[in-house]
Write a structure and sequence with these properties.
By secondary structure, the chain is an alpha/beta fold. The protein has 3 domains: 7-58; 64-90 and 113-298, Endonuclease Chain A (Endonuclease, Chain A, 2-Layer Sandwich), CATH 3.30.870.10; 311-475, 2-Layer Sandwich (Endonuclease, Chain A), CATH 3.30.870.10. It has helices at 7-26, 33-45, 47-58, 64-76, 78-85, 100-108, 126-138, 158-169, 187-192, 262-277, 311-322, 338-349, 365-372, 375-381, 414-419, 430-446, 452-456, 460-471, and strands at 115-123, 143-148, 173-179, 199-203, 223-227, 231-235, 250-251, 254-258, 296-303, 326-330, 353-359, 384-388, 392-393, 397-400, 404-408, 422-427, 448-450. The radius of gyration is 23 Å and the shape is globular.
């Protein structure tokens, strides 16, 4: 240790106080108060450590190269979005009056329109998803587009990659986007697919070059597939064995989507592909005239660094406020901001059945502790909490009054709201909601309900850790 009167010690103290005082001017700028408070606490008590963390993940900083691409993206995609705006049938929705605010929010979001004429199916296992995907890829005529946060060639997915190879051999264009971090363990094999003719784009590639560098935790968390511009898949399922992490089994769903809304999934893929490769996919072959496939009204809702507003978070709030009967939320990572927490408690207190279905054990201990720190006040407000004891329930479903369904890749945390590139699909019909309600009932039967009395008796040390972890909630 240095003596307090030594020049080195004095310089160290000066550095610490410079960081603390500088943080007061920099951290609160354009940042929610809770997030600013968490950063200021960290920087006050651990200035050096806090400064390093803040420089790494404290700012939603994109690389200069990506920022310039995003600035041009809306103009680049304008022919695509204009074409979608003229496609029929535009959605009518036919919602009860109590959902008017949600419907208005969706319609005023001008990225994509609401489309009628869709059909939604549900796949609840990797085996079922892989089998169907192989069949559809083998029938593809023009292109197969895939985006996955995690894509790994393993025993569960080998058949899918074999089908992609067969598609390339018969002249079908195959394009695959994988997140550079999420798929890092299998990236060597993924890159090798280029030798077979499969085009690969790495989302948010890590780079030490200043022009291409960004905060290291930016992710493309989307999961989607588009085949020939006519058939799509979206949801929470990665292209990997559900048991890819030892000791855990991931439980997910994917939607099979037919109809005009598939063109919106295609537009999301086209935007990502342009950002990662510079190539624009905007031909009529990529965006064919849509075919009516059913009676579902729905809209694709991407969010992420290229979109200025956290639309999925705002829509979730709108659904909670609109609910008059029940709101059911299935999510693995429940670390809500203050507005979402207050909305759930208020809904429960006005008599809405509010239910959270979560995994009992997460793969991130800090997130687990932060999540548990909210349970006391939610239970006191009357929110029903159920937890799956054996599976890591990775599905993301929100059902509002048995009518509106929001399904996709986004978790209920700050990362999904403000940092990750995500994709959700909002469906308007009670028939689709009933299908997802049946899936939720499957989860519900396997879960254990949490009760306030036994929960209050947990160890005092656990409570202390949960409260400390809660301070990091705005940063997770």
């Amino acid at each position: 240790m240095f003596a307090l009167d030594s020049p080195v010690a004095q310089l160290y103290v000066l550095l610490e106080w410079t960081i603390r005082l500088g943080a007061l001017f920099i951290v609160p700028m354009r940042r929610p108060p809770t997030a600013a408070t968490a950063w200021l606490l960290l920087l006050f008590f651990l200035p050096i450590v806090g400064l390093v963390m803040y420089l790494l993940i404290g700012r939603p900083r994109l690389s200069r190269d990506r920022s310039e691409k995003i600035a041009r993206l809306a103009h680049t995609l304008r022919p695509i979005t204009d074409r979608l705006a003229s496609v029929e049938p535009q959605g009518s929705g036919n919602l009860p009056a109590r959902f008017a605010a949600v419907d208005q929010m969706v319609r005023r979001w001008r990225q994509f329109p609401l489309f009628d004429g869709n059909r939604i199916g549900l796949l609840d296992s990797m085996d079922a998803f892989a089998a169907e995907l192989i069949c559809e890829i083998d029938q593809a005529r023009h292109h197969v587009h895939l985006t996955f946060y995690i894509a790994v060639i393993d025993t569960a997915t080998r058949g899918v990659f074999d089908a992609l190879e067969r598609a390339v051999a018969r002249g079908v264009a195959v394009r695959l986007i994988v997140d550079d971090f999420g798929s890092k363990e299998g990236m060597r094999e993924i890159k090798a697919l280029a030798r077979l003719g499969i085009e690969v784009g790495q989302a948010f590639p890590r780079s030490k070059l200043p022009r291409k560098s960004a905060r290291f935790d930016l992710r493309n968390h989307r999961k989607l597939v588009v085949i020939d511009g006519r058939l799509g898949y979206a949801g929470s399922m990665n292209l990997v064995d559900p048991e890819f992490r030892p000791g855990r089994v991931y439980e997910d769903v994917m939607m099979r989507i037919e109809g005009p809304v598939v063109l919106e999934l295609q537009a999301v893929f086209a935007g990502d592909w342009h950002l990662e490769t510079g190539m624009l996919l905007d031909t009529e072959s990529h965006f064919p005239a849509p075919r009516t496939a059913g009676h579902e009204s729905c809209i694709g809702l991407p969010s992420g660094p290229e979109y200025p507003e956290p639309l999925l978070q705002q829509l979730l709030l709108g659904l909670i406020h609109a609910a008059t009967e029940r709101i059911e939320i299935v999510t693995p990572y429940f670390v809500p901001d203050e507005s979402t927490l207050d909305a759930l408690k208020a809904a429960a207190r006005r008599g809405v059945h509010c239910e959270l279905i979560l995994p009992e054990t997460l793969d991130h201990p800090l997130v687990q502790l932060a999540q548990e720190s909210y349970f006391d006040e939610l239970l006191d407000a009357g929110v029903c909490i159920r937890r799956h004891p054996t599976r890591l329930l990775h599905t993301k479903i929100t059902l509002c009054d048995g009518r509106l369904s929001l399904v996709g890749s986004a978790n209920l945390d700050v990362r999904s709201s403000l940092i990750n590139a995500e994709l959700g699909v909002l469906c308007y019909s009670s028939e689709t909601a009933a299908r997802f309600a049946d899936q939720i009932e499957v989860y519900r039967r396997a879960c254990r309900q949490l009760h306030a009395g036994p929960w209050a008796e947990r160890a005092r040390g656990r409570i202390l850790l949960q409260n400390i972890a809660r301070l990091t909630s705005p940063l997770l």
